[in-house]
Amino acid sequence: MFVLNTHPDYNKPLEPTDAETLGENGANTVERFLAHRTNHAETPLHALPALARELGVGALHVKDEGHRLGLGSFKALGGAYAVIRLVLEEAERRLGCPVDITELHSPEVMAVAVTMTFACATDGNHGRSVAQGAELVGAKALIFVHGGVSEARVAAISRFGAEIVRVDGTYDDTVAEAARVAIENGWTIVSDTSWAGYERIPGLVMQGYTAMVREALRRLPEPPTHMFVQAGVGGVAAAVSGHLALTFGDRRPTFTVVDPVRAACIFETARAGHPVKIAHGEPTVMAMLECYDPSLVAWRVLKHVADVFMTVEEDDAIAAMNRLARPSGHDPAIVAGESGGAGLAGLIRAASTPAIRAAVGLDENARILLFNTEGATDPERYAELVGMTPAQVCAKTNRA
């Protein structure tokens, strides 16, 4: 399924708050903070010319966030960044003077951080980032997870010293419970989704994601003409599309938002023209995208700058994982988790469906940029779906 953006705000300027969050100054701040992370390195940008030829497009590049900050996901850029920003802001408030990122580990700032507790809900990746950020500054983290979060993903969060709280229900139920408990206890909730009255911190999380866009644009031989980016609550799609719109203006790439058909809250929101909470049904294999209630801040951006909204099936996502693991020609092998390859799943579906191909404007001159938003964050599940371990896939590229 696909729909074009027909919202009255489409192609109009972003709200000033969103332009400030996702624009050049915000992205500069993110990159400055990253420079002070000891394990920071740009993630790879892979060219896939053989796959581009198969799809009938001019060029295809994949930014591989499976290598980000030791967490295996683009989410590493958001939650930890927000935690660090919030600690420095609280230190400024208590100390009564400006505090720079270079002072993060000073005794004065650490004394503030140790009194702070951060909480969030997660399907796995965002919670890992918040937990890592709390560990970096010496704060406490409580991470709320629902029953569908695998033990492997829970263990990956726990290794940063976070306390895990299991919640019955869906991701959205976990968001509500985390917010309730945090308010009762005076903790700081660091959510990657937003709701009425809670927008700034999710905006900081989204701001963190602009770093991967900046990195990709610096490495590409030419700017992209098209992008397909997956959506859960919409945060990453909004961050990428908003930053590109502010960078390129009328020359921005055609932007397609990709939802799992079983958790298509952004697609249904676009179809209705306003935020829509959808019913919980059968779980999707794209576990990191299994969200049923859109982020209000994300939709506020997407209604202005996203061009097309589409859905992909379960088999599409699994096929994309396998296609990246078993490349043709001299294309590199890429380890993409269940949700990581959803953007490619959207591109393949669009390229093979005449109506979508025409609506998106895909042709032999199209230059596509995708984000592999996660690696094998659950290695056992990855091996089940791909038939190879992540190490075996990586070894294929190393031998090439």
From TrEMBL:
Top-rank lineage group of the source organism: Bacteria
Residue ranges constituting the Tryptophan synthase beta chain-like PALP domain according to the UniProt record: 40-354
Pfam families for this protein: PALP
Enzyme class of the recorded protein, top EC level: lyase
Cofactor(s) listed in the protein's UniProt record: pyridoxal 5'-phosphate
Keywords in alphabetical order: Lyase, Pyridoxal phosphate
Lyase as UniProt keyword: yes
Region annotation (Disordered) ranges: 1-22
One function term, GO molecular function aspect: diaminopropionate ammonia-lyase activity
EC numbers for this chain: 4.3.1.15
Name of this protein: Diaminopropionate ammonia-lyase
Protein's organism: Sinorhizobium psoraleae
Lineage: Bacteria, Pseudomonadati, Pseudomonadota, Alphaproteobacteria, Hyphomicrobiales
